[in-house]
Structures are given as C-alpha cells and as structure tokens.
Amino acid sequence: MHITMKHINKNIIIGATLSCLPFTLNAATNADGKDSIDNPKDQMVQVAFQKVKKSELLGGVSVLDYKELTKKNYNTYSLDNLQGYIDGWNGSTMWGLDGYLVLVDGVPRDANNILPTEIDQVTFLKGAQAVVLYGSRATKGAILITTKKGNIGDLKISARGNVGIFAAKSYPKYLGSAQYMSLYNEARANDGLTPLYTDNDIYNYSSGENPYRYPNLDFYSSDYINKCYTRSEANMEINGGSKIARFYANINYYHLDDVFNFGEAKNNGTDRLSIRGNIDLNLNDYISAYIHSNVSFYDVSTANSSSNYWSTAATFRPNRLSPLIPTSSIDPNSAASWIYMNNSLNIVNGNFLSGTTIDQTNVIADMCAGGHGKYTSRQFQFDAGLKFDLAKVLKGLSFETQFAIDYATAYTTAYNNTYAVYTPNWSNYNGSDVISSLTKINNDKKSGTQNVSGSSDNQTIMFSSQFNYNTTINKVHNIKAMLIGAGYQTKLSGTYHKTSNVNLGLELDYNYAGKYFAQIGTALVHSAKLAPGHRDALSPSATLGWKLKNENFLKNSSIVDELTLSASLSELNSDTDIQNYYLYEANYTQADGAYWSWADGTLEKSTNVKRGENPDLRFIKRKEFSVSMQTSLLNHLIEAKASFFTNVIDGGLIQPSTIYPSYFSTYYPSASFIPYVNYNKDKRTGFDFGVNLNKKVGQVGLSLGVTGMYYTSKATQRDENYADSYQNRTGKPLDGLWGLVSDGFYSDAADVAKSPKSSYGTCKPGDIKYVDQNGDGIINAQDQVYLGKGGWYGSPFTLGINLTAKYKDFTFFALCTGNYGAKAFKNNSYWWVYGDGKYSEAVLGRWTEATASTATYPRLTTGTSDNNFQNSTFWLYSTDRFDLAKVQITYDLPKKWFENFFISGVSAYVSGSNLLTFSGERKILEMNVGSAPQYRFYNLGVNVTF
Question: In 455-577, where does DSSP find H-type helix?
Fold first, then answer.
C-alpha cells in the first residue's frame, strides 16, 4: 500500500472519524467505573522472557500501566516524559547508563515506530540482574514495550480523533541591519580598521523606506513562517474474541504540517498510516499461539534546499540581500529586465528571486524554486510464538518459542530544479527608488525528471526458545526455572557487519513460603568482535529478597500492606561499547604513508602500522551491587519504592599513550604499534525513589506521584599524564566540563601588559582575562580546570511529579519534570560572535570604555578573537529547570446517556504540552539556535467507544 492520495485518505479517515464524534467514545474508566489509581491490583508485569506479579518484583524494575495512562494523558510519542512516572529513568538513560535496548513484544525495535494508543504496558529494566538474560546488548538497561491484546467478549470498537496546534516558545533575537552595521563598524574600529559602512548607508537601512534596496532580512518574521502549525490524527481500535481466539487491531493515521508559509515549503508535511493486528489463540488445552503484525507507511514532503533553513537563520546577515523583490519595483521602461521577468519560471507571488555573484543561491530561493522531494519509509514487522504445556511429560514444565522478522525500506524521490537569480541595479528617479536594470545569474531549468537517492533497507531477524518449570513442594518451597536460547541479527544497508546478539540464559528462582526469595540468573554471551578464544563469557547475577509483610509480626498489620527488601550482585559482559570489528588485530595502511623513493627516483608510499595486535582483548564488564525496597501502607494510601545502586564499567577500550613506551608511535610518518586494550573504568553511584499517594476526599479522588533519581559518576581509571594533577580526569565526573576561569575583562593596555600572556592571540582591553592556574605566566590549555557536570547522561538529579484529580465525570491531570545539578556553555553562534558573524542581542552588552563597569560581553572584533571564545566560567550557566510538561482535562459523558444505544461511551479532552519552564536561565533553555524552535502543543481530542 502506498500513500499516493494522502489528502483524500486523510479526509476520508478524519471525516469518517469526526462524523462519529457526536455518537461515539468510551469513558476513560475501568469496568467498575474506578480509575486504576483508586483500584490498585497486583498486576502482571512483563520482565525478561516472562511475566511476574508486581508484588514479586525484586528491585531494579519499574513498570507503567500505559493503557490506563492514555485514558488521562494523550501522548504522541511512546516514551514522552516518562521520567514523570518512572523512578531511575531520567528521560534518556537508566541509572545514568547510556545505550539502553528497546524491545517491543520481545523484539528489538524503535520506540518511535509504536504509537501510545497501541501500548498496554512499559517496563524499565534498570538493574543488571533484571537484564542479564538478554545478553550483551541489554547490559545498560532495557525498555520492554508490550502492545495491547484482545479480550474475551463482544466486539468493541473505539474511535479517537485529535487536532493539535504547535506554537513556538521563542526564537533567537538578532539585530537588524542598521544596528548590525553600526556595531560592525565599531568592531573594525576596535581592530584599528576604517569603517565599512557610511552614516548614510546606516540611515537608509534604518529608515525602512525601501526594504528591498536596503534589506533587513528577518528569518523569523511572518513573511516566511506562520505563528503555529497543526497536527491532526484519527485512530481506531478494535478488539474482542472468545476463549479460543482473541484479536486486537489498531488503525492510525496522522498528518503533520510545517511552519513555513512560502514557496514549495508551504506544502511541507508528514503523513503516517499504520495498521497493527494482534491475534492470540488457544489451539487446545496444551497449545497456545499468537501472531503480531504491524505495517507503517511514512512520507515526509519537503522543499529542496542545499542548506537548512534554521541553521541559515543563525548565520545569514540581515543586510546581505532581500531574497524576494516585487517586480513592481522594476522600471517599466527597462525592456531587458521585463524580458527576464516575462520568461522567468519562478515569479513568486509577484516577486522575483534576488541574488548576487557571491550569493547565487540562498535558502529562501531554494525553497521557492529548487523543487521538492519526498522521503518515503515503509516498515513491516511480524512476530509469532507458540507455547506448549508439557504437564503430561512433567508437571509444571512448558516450552515456548518466538520468531520475528522486521523489514524496513527508505528512499527519497525529488524533482531537482535550478533557477536564475537577478541582481537589481537601483536608481532614484524623482525621489523614488526603482530598479533600472537586472543582472541575470544562472538559468531556470525544470527537467521534469524524478531523482531517487538515499535508498536503504534494514532487516531484523529474531528467534528465541525456552523451557519453563514451575512447581511447589510441600506448599512452601516454590521453584521456578527458565532455560533460554535467544538471538537476533540486524542488517543495515551499507554496513558490512550485521548487529548481532546471541546468548544462552538460565534463571533459577526459589522462595520459601512467599517470605524468602533467591534468584540466580546467568547468560553465556558470544561476540564476533573479539578474537577466537575470547568470544564467549559468562554473565552471572544473584538476588536475595525478603518479603517482610508475610512474616508473622507484619502479616496482620493494618498499617503495612506490602514490604519487600532485596539485594543483588551482578557482573555482566558486553561488546556494545566495542565500536568496530577486528580491533584485536594489527592494522596496516598506505593511505597516509610517507613518500620515499629509490635511486631511480620513483616515488612510493610507505606502509605504516596504525595499530598493534591484542588477541587478549575482552568483553567490557558491568559490575553492580544494588539494594531495593518497595512498600504499600495504610490500605494503599501510600505506595513507595527506592533503590540504591553502585556499578563499575570495567575494561573500556582505549589506545593508551602512557602505559606503552613513547617509541611505540611516531608522528611522521604517522605510525603506531600501540594496540587497543581494556583499561578505562567508570563508576556510577546513586539512588532512585518513587512515592504515590492515593486518597479520596469527598467526591474527589486524588493521586499524587513523585519520582526521582540522583546519581554521581566518576572516572576511576584513565590513561593520562597531565603535567598538573588538577587536570587529571581520574576521580572526576564522566560528564565533566573543563575550561578556563574568567577573571573579568582587561581594563586597559596596562592591565594587558601586566597580566599573564594569552596563547590564544593578542589581547586588548575588553577581552576576557583568565586565571593562570599553574603560575607559568601563560594562559593556555594547562590552565583549564574542572567546572561542573555537563549532564550528558542526564542531570545528576531528576524529578517527576504527576497529579490526578477525579471529580464525577471530570479528570484533571498534570505532569511536571525537573532537572538539577548540570551546567552548560553558551558556545554556539548566538553567543560566540566574531569575524563577520551575525549579531545577536547578546552583543548589546559589549565592552566599551564607556561601559567597562557594566559590560556583559567582550569587545567586538572582526578577527577570530580565539582568546574570548574559549570554554570558560564566563560562558558557563546552570541548566537547572522545572517544567510544567503536561496538563489535560478529560470529561466522560455520563454513561446513562448511552443506555440502550449502540454507543457505549464518549470522552472529550483538552491538553497542553511543554507549557512552562521555571529556571533562572529560562530564556537560554527555551531558545534553539541553528535548529527548529521548541514548541508548545495544544490538543483537542475525543474518544468514542461502540
């Protein structure tokens, strides 16, 4: 199926859905009319290769009932702001470890290719003991997404429609042409140069009388972008079945507009159609099976451009040119000019494309006349499984197997056009500016040929089989065991080696009378990235648990509903951070060899050693100890859990520079006998927590959830030989920011003369002065010190707060997130302005002799000014923030309205996402430079159930 008639499809789907809105939609409640908050239950949780009761989880695992969440919180992305509900997850990593594995129904898949409406449950496996059975590629955590399944009962259909608006939070603020020209003259004066722009020039640009002759180009104006753009979506879910066969289907279509309002770019848009079907079968009393399939069609239409609009907006100076000039500005008597216009293929709303010999193209002209393209992606996903009850062979024994194959293709089709631009030659007739002539550059050409590029295809094949054994002896000895063989392989076009993961797993579980628990898990992992003889390793894990609630002293407690303690010790082996194959082998090359010759004069290139051999290269290990607690108090009024963890990533690969003799490498010709070795060690220590309060006050049901994680990281072993010990990375955070310490501005020439000399260029008054850390009289890289944590793996402290209030048929939901303890540098083009770069509002605080005491920005310069633009405390800021991430109000129409009617319920909701940021640096945090802005999203939706 191909989306060739996307607008027709969109109108049919949305029209059919919206036409049903007055008659359809299911109230967002359970069958008993209670929200899940008011009706806690011991749900089954998907963990590695099995489902267990939530009360039997032994730490390192967090779970979210996504189906219930969707009833009060509509999302467009499966992992959107889940740090607001999940302890130990900061939005990008679990326990600070980057590189988690995502499994959808047990198969490695992308989280962005599954819709929130398809999801039943999401499980976060944080602890090493929780992921051990998945082998090498899950050693940094795994996210298990379980899709919805069919239920026994009559056919149920729900239809959901959403219409949303994206509104930009902020844009970078750049100076207009006149201000830019004035300040550029000032920068030249600071450099001892004469002015480039005359006072008359600056006046003409500031007057605004002729913005085409004297342009003041603003990429963020309404001439080019709309204030907002829309997203529309239609979704239908179907489920039902019997004891023998149950089915679930999800059909979804959405269309996403773009913010641009000119040229081909105003037709930019994204269309996605997906269809999922899940079937579960009970073939007989001993055999069950399932089949899951999903197909998605994804198209993105864009205007062709040789550069990115947003990155150009951050660099293109406002006085450079006016890209679109009205043809009415041309002298009616300029016959040659009008011949150009009459023959042009690219008159845009009465405007011709302007350019110069230097700017023969620009991003706005590209998006008007460069043609258009479409990125097309098709994905097919299929998995099936069988489960056999082998009780006739041995009571408690079962066998299950799963097979999956996913296939994805992508390509881009485009009509690539070339176009002419015209340089206007302006004259003034009787006080009016007119274009007396045009100079044509290049030619208009539309070949009509569709070009295909960027073709790619990916394939994933996955297979697993396992024996399960579950028995109870004398009613108190509960024994479970799993023996697993699993593996998958992903083939990426253009990549020689496939991504592979294969392992054998064994888990043994024992508990005595539901009080004392022991769990042993182990996996035999294999990797072709290592040399023969070192390709296999055993990953062991052990966990002990104590369910205090089942002890006599708490069994009948009216206060404690649940209390479990657990501790785990694990050592996992992984090749995930071994980036390439054959690193254990020596490498020889002529690519950058030195030229040499014999007496005959013929030049040859030397063959150089680039890497030494190390056949003893081994897996990288995750060694971890963790302690967990979970409890429920006062009849589920309070539910809480917490974990403490400490882990070491041991054996990180490097080519060391100090532990081998210096003669093992040469700079010219470039050669090295130094091999890759397992050397680096990283340590992370922290804790996470989650607390939920559930209380009904009168007719109002309240639920408050608070989650958080705090962790620290440390490089405990590094190959380094800094002259000054304060620069050692050993003992410092892994995400450490390093830079110079600012000491204000040089006040005058005497201050420059008496201060340490900068190795970053000649300094003048108004430049940034730095602290000479080692007292050698020179400011250089040896004066860089540790300045703070960068939060590359998530901020040190992550906070999430979610609030639900239910009153009769109304549900109010709010979600807040917070991040604290990290810093960043203001080092993009908005802040580091030099040469002929575009001037932002930041430069208004520049240093001058008159503003020396109040300046917030160094002196302006047309040079590179490397001294000023170094990472330092001058540019450092805190990224601490607290965000109101989501608010949604849902109204469930009274069910009595639909008695004896074919519609069983209707819900309507309105929501806002990414609403507010509270931070001392809010303006910086909300501003994107060189990329699309951050947007607030306002959505109106309705859900109807038949």
Answer: 552-555
**Category of 724 on φ-ψ map: left (φ > 0), alpha (ψ -120 to 50) or beta:** beta
pLDDT tens readout for residues 573-595: 999 999 899 999 999 887 777 77
Task: Identify whether the C-beta of residue 491 lies closer than 8 Å to the C-beta of residue 459.
Answer: yes
State residue 18's pLDDT score.
31
* Residue ranges, the chain, pLDDT below 70: 1-41, 599-600
Q: pLDDT tens across 401-440, in order?
A: 999 999 999 999 999 999 999 999 999 988 899 999 999 9
Amino acid of residue 478: N
Q: Which residues contact 818 (CB under 8 A, 6 or more apart)?
A: 797, 798, 799, 800, 801, 881, 882, 883
Do 339 and 438 contact (CB within 8 A), yes or no? no
Q: How far apart are alpha carbons 174 and 571 in whole angstroms? A: 53
- Tell me: the pLDDT tens digits for 688-744? 999 999 999 999 999 999 999 999 999 999 999 999 999 999 999 999 999 999 999
Q: Which helix (H) or strand (E) holds 70?
A: helix 66-70
| Structure tokens given for 89 | 């997850």
Our CA angle for 66, 892, 914, nearest 5°, is 50
DSSP-assigned letters across all residues of 347-360: -BTTEEEB--SS-S
Q: What residues contact residue 144 under an 8 Å CB cut-off, 6+ apart?
A: 46, 47, 48, 103, 106, 122, 123, 124, 125
Instruction: For residues 701 and 166, give the distance between their C-alpha atoms in angstroms, rounded to a whole number.
Output: 32
Decide if 62 contacts 71 (C-beta within 8 A). no
> What is the distance between the alpha carbons of residues 938 and 639, in angstroms, rounded to a whole number?
32
Nearest to 362 by CA among 409, 313, 428: 313
CA distances from 216 to 178, 239, 319 (A): 8, 58, 5
Joined tokens for residue 5: 């008639």
pTM: 0.91
Tokens 């908050």, residue located: 37
Identify the bridge partners of residue 705 per DSSP, sorted by sequence position. 692, 802
User: What six digits make up the tokens of 935?
Assistant: 């947007």
